[in-house]
UniProtKB/TrEMBL annotation:
<dbReference type="GO" id="GO:0005524">
    <property type="term" value="F:ATP binding"/>
</dbReference>
<dbReference type="InterPro" id="IPR027417">
    <property type="entry name" value="P-loop_NTPase"/>
</dbReference>
<dbReference type="InterPro" id="IPR016300">
    <property type="entry name" value="ATPase_ArsA/GET3"/>
</dbReference>
<dbReference type="GO" id="GO:0016887">
    <property type="term" value="F:ATP hydrolysis activity"/>
</dbReference>
<dbReference type="Pfam" id="PF02374">
    <property type="entry name" value="ArsA_ATPase"/>
</dbReference>
<feature type="domain" description="ArsA/GET3 Anion-transporting ATPase-like">
    <location>
        <begin position="13"/>
        <end position="176"/>
    </location>
</feature>
<dbReference type="InterPro" id="IPR025723">
    <property type="entry name" value="ArsA/GET3_ATPase-like"/>
</dbReference>
<protein>
    <submittedName>
        <fullName>Anion-transporting ATPase</fullName>
    </submittedName>
</protein>
Length: 337
């Protein structure tokens, strides 16, 4: 990948979380494209059967098999993976115990559902384990060279659970690792913890400039810090530009609009029924101004969190691959990656 300065240079696992409805899956996808535009290979991962990534890239669905889903600038590529707890458990059993062949029997007897239901955090452990394995995975080194080969993926982006449970999700392996003092389970847990707690892993928070998402974002950042996680940036999604001058916005936010001036302007433009149209337009102006005031107050609260903030613009035409590329460019222009 290039040597261009980036705010998160050296980070290999980007965990993206946010309150439900803030568009964190869209932002995670744009972030993956932005990282791949460095010319590298990026893996975009979703968990908990959310099925949100595939439609953004014009696909029907994702599976447990990693597949290329988009090309980026400079020869970079984005791969995607939907982590399924059952598939992760079977892979784990094969890796450590050579038991993959018994997978059919385990399914028939419901052992997998049983294990991931009654064991506290078992499902989350399987999901984070698969993600961190992708982060650690290296290509085979040739016999002529000593040491491990290069990483398969230059970066991994995780479309993670919502803010309300992200800390528990990431720390569950550490909480239960004491149950296994020795053996492959303990070794597996230790490797997962090493990746999650590494400075090469950061948690980014997606929010809207609205009261509830901002409140949850600020609380989530504090909780993540208290848990010893590395907090990344704040990605402010669906940002709309101010359409009026500051003085006009300030007055309109208090309900003051020069309706007479509006009427004269509309009349000069030869629009029909300018008086009625000016009254309707004045209401829109007041609403826009008050939205801008709320957004400004939200930005002040986010600034107090002490993390870099990046604006992700609202896409008037909806989100598709072209829209994601635009958002990726915006992130890169702001130095997010």
């Amino acid at each position: 990948m290039s040597s261009r300065d980036r705010d998160w240079d050296g980070v290999r696992l980007h965990v993206v979380t946010g309150k439900g409805g803030t568009g964190k899956t869209t932002v995670a996808a744009a972030l993956a494209l932005a990282l791949a535009a460095e010319g590298g290979k990026v893996l975009l991962v979703e968990v908990e059967e959310r099925h949100g990534i595939a439609p953004l890239f014009g696909l029907d669905s994702l599976s447990y098999a990693e597949r290329e889903i988009a090309a980026a600038d400079n020869g970079g590529t984005v791969y995607a993976l939907a982590v399924d707890a059952e598939a992760a458990l079977l892979e784990y059993l094969e890796m450590f115990y050579g038991l993959r062949r018994v997978g059919g029997a385990l399914r028939r007897f419901g052992v997998i559902d049983f294990a991931t239901t009654i064991a506290p955090g078992a499902r989350d452990i399987l999901l984070t384990g698969k993600v961190t394995e992708a982060v650690r995975r290296r290509t085979p080194q040739s016999a002529r060279h000593d040491g491990p080969g290069p990483y398969v993926y230059d970066a991994v982006v995780l479309d993670a659970p919502p803010t309300g449970r992200i800390t528990r999700f990431l720390n569950v392996t550490a909480e239960v690792s004491g149950l296994a003092r020795v053996g492959p389970v303990r070794d597996h847990a230790a490797r997962v913890i090493d990746v999650i707690r590494s400075p090469e892993t950061v948690v980014h928070f997606v929010t809207l400039l609205e009261e509830m998402p901002v409140q949850e974002c600020v609380e989530g950042i504090a909780e993540a810090r208290d848990a010893g996680l590395h907090v990344g940036g704040i990605l402010v999604n669906m940002v709309r530009p101010a359409l009026l001058e500051d003085s006009v916005l300030a007055a309109a936010s208090q309900g003051v609009v020069d309706v007479a001036a509006l009427t004269r302007g509309l009349q000069a433009a030869s629009l029909p029924d300018p008086s009625r149209l000016a009254q309707e337009l004045s209401k829109e102006i007041v609403e826009h101004a008050r939205h801008m005031r709320v957004a400004a107050e939200a930005r002040s609260r986010l600034a107090a969190a002490g993390r870099p903030c990046y604006d992700v613009p609202f896409l008037d035409d909806g989100v598709d691959l072209d829209g994601l590329r635009r958002l990726a460019c915006e992130l890169r222009d702001q130095g997010a990656v």
